[in-house]
Amino acid sequence: QVQLVESGGGLMEAGGSLRLSCTAGRTDIFINTMGWFRQSPDKQRTLVATVFRNGVANYADSVTGRFTISRDNANNTVSLQMNNLELEDTAVYYCYARGGFPGRSYQYDYWGQGTQVTVSS
Hints:
Elements: E1 4-7, E2 10-13, E3 18-24, E4 30-39, E5 46-52, E6 57-59, E7 67-72, E8 77-82, E9 91-100, E10 108-111, E11 115-120
């Protein structure tokens, strides 16, 4: 099992910054991808950013240039630096990890419990 523990959510005015962090607990699963998704009330969960183990990152168009994702493989930690926050960034942010047993092709998806980010005008 992989448990993802999130921190860093909160309230911030538009134009401000927040930093989210997520750490995966001890596991025998090799984590290939880590990232963040977000979900507003009555909406589907959507991609914010992901980063592969080699550092290659993907971003949603809406956050490109404002958010930066980074990863510490040794500590199984992923962080999301969110700058120039906008009202539309308000959502519950979920840490995400994908991986599997070494030498096996099947991949498992893991999710954190979510942390609230609220951006005010």
